[in-house]
């Protein structure tokens, strides 16, 4: 009897793990939300031997949008060289608070943030990929890519 219950429990767990949530949005490069539009921009600026990334998230709709975060990390920034090798990642060697947080981006409001890449910067062509980590109802994950030069 115990073996039967254990086997049934294992089968239920395996069945549940194999199911995909159908209500979660796909991970795509998008900021469209019906008539709502959110625009993410990134502007890499070389400052001596480092690169400062000025990023903005703008709510171009006429409605407020509430973003929810699973951690204190608001964005991810990765920099890749011409060969696709990762040269920098914002979250590498950082720790983030594991707590649900949220903020409201009001209609036509802009949320500005920045980061600086200062170790291992060499001349060349790079691609910055920024992903905003906040989730909003009906909004797909927002990602922006930008190619830039370091002299």
Automatic annotation (TrEMBL):
Coiled-coil features, chain-numbered ranges: none
Matching PROSITE patterns: PROKAR_LIPOPROTEIN (PS51257)
InterPro entries according to UniProt: Intracell_prot_inh_BsuPI, IPI
Keyword Signal applies: yes
Domain of life: Bacteria
Classification via Pfam families: BsuPI
Gene3D superfamilies reported for this sequence: Intracellular proteinase inhibitor BsuPI
First and last residue of the signal peptide: 1-18
Record bears the keyword Signal: yes
Intracellular proteinase inhibitor BsuPI domain span: 40-136
Keywords, comma-separated and alphabetical: Signal
This protein's name: Intracellular proteinase inhibitor BsuPI domain-containing protein
